[in-house]
Amino acid sequence: MTHDRSAGLVETARALADGTVTARALVERTLARIEAGQGSLNAFRIVRAEAALAEADAADKELAAGVRKPLLGVPVAVKDDMDVAGEPTAFGCQGEFPPVAEDGEAVRRLRAAGAVVVGKTNTCEFGQWPFTEGPAFGATRNPWNADHTPGGSSGGSAAAVAAGLVPAALGSDGAGSVRIPASWTHLIGIKPQRGRISTWPRGESFQGITVNGTLARTVADAALLLDAASGNHALDPHRPPSVDASGAARRDPGRLRIALALKPPFTALPARLDPQVRAKVVQLAERLAALGHTVEEADPPYGQIGLTFIPRATVGLAERVGEAPFPALLDRRTRDAARLGRLLGGAPLRAARRAEAVLHRRIGAFFTSYDVVLAPTTAAPPPRIGSMLPLGGFATDRAMIAACPYAWPWNVLGWPGVNVPAGFVDGGLPVGAQLLGPANSEPLLISLAAQLEAELRWHEAWPPLRLDADSPAA
């Protein structure tokens, strides 16, 4: 039996355990697809061809000896902000970076689960923007429409999964950087509770607003990768109680009270919800009501939450810029934002960090009336390639806030959110909606997403740029 190249993570792991496919054959095909898609999609910064084949051979030996691990021999990708031993971590920046000595904790856990890391995916410089472009690597394109961005900053991971290059990938989310590209490439994107997937060797990434998350075509696949990557380094400051994400994907969520939140949270700049995106999110709300949930329009009491985001984001960026080996090669917008971060690093940062507990209480109280918030993931469909690249700092912020005003509050709170596909708008462009919950609510959000998926079967739709078994490019 040949293994379908577009099979998901769960299916691939099962085929390897059953012996219907070898890790070597799978990884060879995966590498061939990555190579075939690199010219059109440009999803990868680094491809670990030789190392991945050696790891596949080692996995085959283990499989033959009867060893079983959740992802033994399964090819996956990780974003280029994660340390993979022997590879550089350039995080979207220009220049030649030295290889790092050891795996970051999330990668270490993936390997412990048996996964083969085939490569590191493209991200914009220090993950700042909702597009994946830059002088370091060019533009990463959207498999649904190559004139448009897959989003960012985990755009390489999203493009690779959406096109079927790999069954699932890790990304990171500091202001929607998993959820935004998931929404713009028709994927499941899980932003977990802060600390669920370790960001070690950094106990906190970007002052605690950035977490690692998973991108996949199905809820079960995203949940399996979450389970495999979850867990903590001994020195991690945030250690949430463990959850069984895969178990949650098989459970009925029960009847829930869902708040449909269409109003953009506080932003200093104007943001308007595109009517086509609004219509798709409202359709999802109607589908949830038809499934027996109580859905009503209500907005969480965000207040001035934006004021707490900026110090954390810019101070976190300033820390990265301070460590950058080639500061002169950084984008001017990066240097300007880091300068602001250096100004905000004292009292403003302390006040922003202290405000989190107040926000937890106030927005937490909203969850006594509702179980889940349903909100747009973005306010607009994916922008065209190059549209934000030449802009100055303020114009970039304006464009970014106009397109993506909905995702970042959950980064301030550190709580889970899951992007689910909401359908397509003009130009065949995907858009998404996010399911948001209180602390440690991944199981609830995942079971609700799985219920929607069983109804809508969004994973059956494939993009035009699909590199799978039937593709001549593969």
From TrEMBL:
Family statement: Belongs to the amidase family.
Q: Does the keyword Ribosomal protein apply?
A: no
Q: Which top EC class is named for this enzyme in its record? A: hydrolase
> Which residues are in the Amidase domain?
26-445
Example of a GO MF term: amidase activity
Q: What is its EC number?
A: 3.5.1.4
Lineage runs: Bacteria, Bacillati, Actinomycetota, Actinomycetes, Kitasatosporales
Q: What Pfam families does its record include?
A: Amidase (PF01425)
Could you tell me which PROSITE patterns the record lists for this protein? AMIDASES
The protein's name in its UniProt record: Amidase
**Keyword hit for Hydrolase:** yes
**Native source organism of the sequence:** Streptomyces justiciae
Q: Which UniProt keywords apply?
A: Hydrolase
Checking InterPro entries in the record gives:
Amidase (IPR000120), Amidase_CS (IPR020556), Amidase_dom (IPR023631), AS_sf (IPR036928)
